[in-house]
């Protein structure tokens, strides 16, 4: 196992629109991030992953890019970006940018040209197909509802958009497209950025035949994902990108990859294959999914969650490297999802942080996770901004006739705006995020959950995360130790060891609001020192590890003696 700085780092994701507004227009911006760099340095993170800051018409909040080489007006200017990069580097914080190259905005000049006529030089930059009997070329469903195909009057055919119709897919089969992308990547890397998080990058190679997808009962559209996820040329493209661009810089890369399996994960991340450093898989994010996909409200089982996460730990033990995350800008808040956002909010947030950070891989923190920020339940659909939620709501209510209250409930639990409500800095109006009208309402709980409060409380989730991050720098076992799952069948306890040479760490996490006992026969003769704990009542005697009593939502990490 080779040692690398990105294996020893903790990444913090910033969703700029919701992070900090410096000029009172209600939208977060680059100067706002600069103002908070000391806060991030205090937390101790090593790398910032910046969600897109490029010029965009904001159909999908910047994941629809109009110009890869300029900064979105609302966020500031390229000068602001340069200051941000320099100021972050001054604090030993690296910056990883979002690379969104499965698609562009339909307002990108390439697409404006491409759609204008069949003989335009940019025509083959995108994926154009003829319809069949007045219908779109395939039955595929877009990730944001409706068909993946949009008809274009000027040329009488359809273009592919796996996401919204304002996000046309680029044609990676075209050599010119690939070299444009590589040039753009070099342009940013030459500025001194430290890597890329690559948006749905395992979607860039499409199956050449464009077959119809399977249609589930009761559904109008088919599932095209087998024909665009991990497609036939994906490894060739990533290998080429590595050779031509990435290998010339000391950077980190993480590919966002819905539908990726551990076998594929190894192919993407094994050192000798020269593709990427890590992938984001989504298996654990699907643990509470069901018939309605992510919108299902079926609950989840700890045994399923453990099975998924430990499978990835074992599979990538020898080859490749894991990324570890509970949250991002597309997911509900973890304390509401797998913890308890009521009485045990702080305690369960710390437990979840421990469970994640003690596994093997690079941990990612999403803004506000370090405060234990929660989901929000807005009363009206009009308070939501995310196109995924709004499209789903319209489809379910207007086409399928579902009860609007029930659809709203799904959005309360699963909608992406849970992650996107403004960062809660203080108990001041709008959580101190803006002096103006925020683009998305602030979660009303900002009066009690905010950074100012967390910084002043030694026992806060913030201070606990700070300690978790610090420990990674002091203890190599946390970074490089081998993972082994214990108590596989327990529905209450997530338990595992990490072993590195003579040192073994034992991590015990209670996922329930009841006290529980961890029976660990194999450690009957062993005792341990506490490395970190969120326990309220101190253990007076040295703990014998054969039988360990755990408080509700307790997480304790022992160093075995
Ligand atoms: C994944 C991103 O994380 C999400 O926010 C976005 O909507 C889609 N990719 C499309 O770019």
From TrEMBL:
Domain of life: Bacteria
Catalytic activity from the UniProt record: Hydrolysis of (1->6)-alpha-D-glucosidic linkages in some oligosaccharides produced from starch and glycogen by alpha-amylase, and in isomaltose
GO MF annotations, alphabetized: alpha-amylase activity; oligo-1,6-glucosidase activity
Statement: the UniProt record of this protein carries the keyword 4Fe-4S: no
GO biological process, one term: oligosaccharide catabolic process
Key word Thylakoid present: no
EC number per UniProt: 3.2.1.10
InterPro entries, A to Z: GH, GH13_cat_dom, Glyco_hydro_b, Malt_amylase-like_C, O16G_dom_2
Pfam families in UniProt: Alpha-amylase, Malt_amylase_C
Glycosyl hydrolase family 13 catalytic domain location: 13-420
A Gene Ontology term for the protein's cellular component: cytoplasm
Entry's localization field: Cytoplasm
Keywords from the named record: Cytoplasm, Glycosidase, Hydrolase
SMART domains referenced in this protein's UniProt entry, alphabetically: Aamy
Family recorded in the similarity comment: Belongs to the glycosyl hydrolase 13 family.
Protein name, as recorded: oligo-1,6-glucosidase
Taxonomic lineage of the native organism: Bacteria, Bacillati, Bacillota, Bacilli, Bacillales
């Amino acid at each position: 196992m080779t040692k690398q700085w990105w294996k020893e780092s903790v990444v913090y994701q910033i969703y700029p629109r919701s992070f900090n507004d410096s000029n009172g227009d209600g939208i977060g911006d680059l100067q706002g991030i600069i103002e908070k760099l000391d806060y991030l340095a205090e937390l101790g993170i090593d790398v910032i992953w910046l969600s897109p800051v490029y010029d965009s018409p904001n159909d999908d909040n910047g994941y629809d890019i109009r110009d890869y080489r300029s900064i979105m007006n609302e966020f500031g200017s390229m000068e602001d970006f340069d200051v941000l990069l320099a100021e972050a580097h001054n604090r030993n914080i690296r910056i990883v940018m979002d690379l969104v190259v499965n698609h562009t905005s339909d307002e990108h000049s390439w697409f404006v040209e491409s759609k204008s006529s069949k003989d335009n030089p940019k025509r083959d930059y995108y994926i154009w197909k003829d319809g069949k009997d007045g219908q779109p070329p395939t039955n595929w469903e877009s990730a944001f509802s409706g068909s993946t195909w949009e008809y274009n009057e000027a040329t009488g055919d359809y273009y592919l958009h796996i996401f919204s119709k304002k996000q046309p897919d680029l044609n990676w089969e075209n050599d010119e497209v690939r070299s444009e992308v590589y040039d753009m990547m070099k342009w940013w890397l030459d500025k001194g950025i430290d890597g890329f998080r690559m948006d749905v990058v395992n979607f860039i190679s499409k199956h050449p035949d464009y077959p119809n997808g399977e249609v589930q009962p009761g559904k109008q559209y088919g599932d095209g994902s087998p024909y665009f996820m991990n497609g036939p040329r994906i490894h060739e493209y990533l290998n080429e990108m590595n050779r031509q661009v990435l290998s010339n810089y000391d950077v980190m890369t993480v590919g966002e990859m819905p539908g990726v399996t551990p076998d594929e994960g190894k192919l993407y991340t094994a050192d000798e294959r020269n593709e990427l450093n890590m992938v984001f898989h989504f298996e654990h994010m699907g643990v509470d999914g069901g018939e309605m996909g992510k919108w299902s409200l079926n609950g989840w089982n700890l045994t399923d969650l453990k099975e998924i996460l430990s499978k990835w730990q074992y599979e990538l033990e020898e080859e490749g490297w894991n990324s570890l995350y509970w949250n991002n800008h597309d997911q509900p808040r973890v304390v509401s999802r797998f913890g308890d956002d009521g009485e045990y909010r702080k305690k369960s947030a710390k437990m979840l942080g421990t469970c994640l950070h003690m596994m093997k891989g690079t941990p990612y923190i999403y803004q506000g996770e370090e405060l234990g920020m929660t989901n929000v339940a807005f009363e009206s659909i009009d308070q939501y901004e995310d196109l995924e939620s709004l499209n789903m709501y319209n489809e379910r209510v207007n086409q399928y006739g579902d009860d609007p209250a029930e659809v709203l409930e799904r959005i309360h639990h699963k909608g992406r705006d849970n992650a996107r409500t403004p960062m809660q800095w203080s108990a001041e109006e709008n959580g101190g995020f803006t002096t103006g009208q925020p683009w998305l309402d602030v979660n009303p709980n900002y009066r009690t959950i905010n950074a100012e409060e967390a910084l002043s409380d030694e026992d806060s989730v913030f201070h606990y995360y700070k300690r978790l991050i610090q420990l990674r720098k002091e203890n190599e076992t946390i970074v490089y130790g081998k993972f082994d799952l214990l108590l596989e069948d327990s529905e209450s306890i997530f338990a595992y060891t990490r072993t590195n040479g003579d040192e073994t760490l034992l991590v015990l996490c209670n996922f329930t609001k009841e006290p529980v006992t961890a029976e660990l026969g194999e450690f009957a003769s062993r005792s341990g020192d506490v490395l970190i704990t969120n326990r309220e009542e101190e253990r007076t005697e040295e703990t014998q590890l054969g039988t360990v009593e755990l408080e509700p939502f307790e997480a304790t990490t022992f160093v075995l003696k």
